[in-house]
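Moderator note: this is an archived Q&A kept for reference. The question asked for a predicted structure of one protein chain; the sequence and the answer are reproduced below.
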Amino acid sequence: MAARRPPELNSGILSDTVIRHFPFENVNQTSVLQLVSYEDRNYYFVGTLEGQSTTDEFIFKISNTRACLDLIDGQNAVMNHLKKRGIPCTYPLASRQREYSIVVSSSDLQFTTDISEFTFCVRVFPYLQGNLLNSVKVTEQLLRCVGKFVGTMDKAIEGFAHPAIEACLNGWDLRNFPDAKKYLYAVDDLNKIAMVTKVFEYFSEHIEPMIPSLRHRIIHGDCNEQNILLCGVQEGPYEVSGILDFGDCVYSCLVFNLAILLTYIMLLMVDDDPLQYAAPVIQAYQEVLPLEPCELQLLYYCVLVRICLSVLIGAHSYIQDPSNNIYQLCTQKCGWKLLKILLDTPKEEVDRLWCKEDHHITNVLQ
């Protein structure tokens, strides 16, 4: 059964919960602001940690425990592992009990009785400063910066293991793409169904047979334009100041992480010859963590798969919860457009564009 999204939380209960379980002296209730999210509830707040004389900014995250507490512990472990290796990323604060996740009941949060059987996991994260990738001007320097960062992150996590993450079956994992056929009911356009059907065929023919021989490790799994933070002046140059949301980290094929990043870079630039924006990302990634020839050959197909997962799961989720439509439909229009562009472009042409060593983005991005 899918995890039920937690109900909304009022600022008073949030403040009481934070102070009770985490080492805070106070929480400014007027600062509490609910953020856009998919399955969890995320809240921004300002508070003062015990022993500190100044306030700071934080994120309060509440998740349904059906998401599996062991898996949440695994996500915490991944963040702490990367933080120790100098990768700027979100990370959980320890509670008063020196735990990174606290389980609370519906009654603790004063939720209504219709969900009295539910328990929830709460965590607090320092608020990372920076500009979201989708809020800044895209330049070649920026793309190289992001590619290098994700390559560095993927390299830093090599060898790290966690049993709960390795055992997790995640619907966003590209290995499980055939399971997404159950969401075709949510697409009512025959041309769109035909495009997705073609990608299912590509997966069976090109990706699935190669999965056992590809490099595997824990990957972030959702390197999108809303999870990458940048610091720098408006005209650049930029540096990555952090990466957010490890809720979809999974043990899977290494190449999928780069494919996911490329997908969202191109979605961001879908109205401006999007395919050209992938090359600087790929080049910078490979300077840190070179791809094997078979991984490079699969990039095109992997991007197609991620686009299809986004549009199919988004369409299904909108039907299940229309109230969350702004977040769930954010990639629908752009996703279908990018999918058509890629399918209409011969793979050989895309490969040449993405792997050309002296490639430079055209137009005004020099």
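Archived answer notes: Strands lie at 24-35, 41-49, 56-64, 102-105, 119-126, 131-132, 216-219, 228-231, 239-243, 250-253.
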